[in-house]
What we know:
The protein is α/β, with parallel strands linked by helices. The chain folds into two domains: about 1-145, Aminopeptidase, CATH 3.40.630; about 165-395, Rossmann fold, CATH 3.40.50. About 35% of the residues lie in helices and about 20% in strands. The protein has 16 helices and 15 strands. The strands form four sheets. It has a five-stranded mixed beta sheet with strand order 4-3-2-1-5, sandwiched between helices. The chain has a five-stranded parallel beta sheet with strand order 7-6-10-14-15, with helices on both faces. Strand 3 (about 85-95) and strand 4 form a beta hairpin. The longest helix has 20 residues, at about 325-345. It is globular, with a radius of gyration of 23 Å. The N and C termini lie far apart (about 50 Å).
Amino acid sequence: xxxxxxxxxxxxxxxxxxxxxxxxxxxxxxxxxxxxxxxxxxxxxxxxxxxxxxxxxxxxxxxxxxxxxxxxxxxxxxxxxxxxxxxxxxxxxxxxxxxxxxxxxxxxxxxxxxxxxxxxxxxxxxxxxxxxxxxxxxxxxxxxxxxxxxxxxxxxxxxxxxxxxxxxxxxxxxxxxxxxxxxxxxxxxxxxxxxxxxxxxxxxxxxxxxxxxxxxxxxxxxxxxxxxxxxxxxxxxxxxxxxxxxxxxxxxxxxxxxxxxxxxxxxxxxxxxxxxxxxxxxxxxxxxxxxxxxxxxxxxxxxxxxxxxxxxxxxxxxxxxxxxxxxxxxxxxxxxxxxxxxxxxxxxxxxxxxxxxxxxxxxxxxxxxxxxxxxxxxxxxxxxxxxxxxxxxxxxxxxxxxxxxxxxxxx
Length: 411
């Protein structure tokens, strides 16, 4: 009888009735053998057409997974009729100038379910050499696929909320493990330049003055539209994650009364080189010592506090200080950490200090500002756990790491 009823359904209706569920599993070490098997054996659904033929290639692949800016996940699939297990794998290089899938491979057992198209959109459509097939039933794939558990305790909370991120490239990695329902103000590439949002001027500049300032519109910099989008995002956010340490560095320039912005030396040099006279006439560099920059940190946090809702939870990442050889850098970060910690303690109903040194071992630091994939996952897991304790809706539940499967295997 059931088969007769299903035969009367259209393909799309059948897919909807199947209740297809997709879960991203971040336990790479625990699934490593299955991942290798999938890459080696997949046929038409290996969209990067990269194989692993020899033990040397497999070992190189294992080491590559540990490098910075690698967003990696296993795809588990189930529906009302079967649990297909680990049926897909992706490895994506994720940088401001380079978002490309290195591996994007699926088992033929989930062919024509729309899973690969769904995961590709979940990853925000990075560069992929091969073309994906059309949706198996037309329309939006989200009509019949849901992010969810394939069984067991998922640790998922309320299915609502939006995540807003402001910071450097470190947050690109953290964000991927938190939620797909997010608004990112993180490094992005524009032509031959990089736009940075970890900038006190981005938070504190007058919005009307930015709108009416022709000089800032003439360079590669955040825009008036970015600033308004940020403010609106804060008002709607359930969780905000901030990484403002890099805003302490670089040079700040006034572009007009109430309008100022930050450029690193590497970004400022090519902009000034194009027209030195215009640059020097349009922008006046600010003289900011360490105390002034620390003060601006607190002003920026205060401005963000005034723009979020009473229910929003704000997480501020500290500066990493373990095993740093430069004493001046350690002192600078310690002062930054002390001030941020004090602000969070004074605004404890909404603000949370994320003590990076306590969460990340020294051997998971690639350098002073970049960490391994496991470290970013640990930061995301900590933030989601703390958000759940507050009763905040938090990022969309269907995109949270699974509390059982998403644990990284311990060496």
